[in-house]
Amino acid sequence: MPKPITPQKTDDEKVSEYMQLLEHPLKAEINALRAIIMAAHPALRERIKWNAPSYYAGVDLVTFNLRMTSKVHLVFHHAAIDNISSALLEGDYKDRRMMYFENMTEVETHRAELQRILVELVTAAAA
User: Fold this and answer.
1) Which residues contact 65 (CB under 8 A, 6 or more apart)?
2) 7 CB-contact burial (10 Å; exposed 0-12 / middle 13-18 / buried 19+)
3) Model confidence over 69-84: pLDDT tens digits?
């Protein structure tokens, strides 16, 4: 008798499962940042990529790097990020920038700037 076909998990299910299993001292900050990112632009979608929550709008834009436990690290990895100016964006790489958050105060303080960056990035990436 053939094995029953198991339906593939949706991206939402994969992210939910990932977050349930995640053990990280800044998990509350990670969840707050996930909500801020998703609220920034209606085209943004969330999935797991590189073993972390990742965001795309037709093309990949930003992914959490959760190896560090003292900070939450976001990697903006679309080349258009190079044309967006913000004091929060760190690094002088050809096609990516980094952003770090140490606590919930920083997450809340930089909410509007993070969303502005994401709107610019989604718009530039779609052009």
Assistant:
1) 50, 52, 73, 74, 75
2) exposed
3) 999 999 999 999 999 9
Cα 100 off chain centre by: 12
Residues 81 and 97: beta-carbon distance below 8 Å: yes
Residue 127, token pair as written in the block: 């052009």
Greatest alpha-carbon pair distance for the chain in Å reads 61
Q: Which two tokens stand for residue 117?
A: 């960056």
Q: Is the dihedral of CA 8, 64, 78, 108 positive or negative?
A: positive
Q: For the whole prediction, is pTM greater than 0.85?
A: yes
What are the C-alpha distances in Å from 47 to residues 19, 22, 80? 11, 15, 21
Alpha carbon distances (Å) from 126 to 28, 45, 108: 31, 14, 28
Q: Of the candidates 103, 110, 99, 100, which has an alpha carbon nearest to the alpha carbon of residue 27?
A: 103
75 is written with which tokens?
Answer: 């990697």
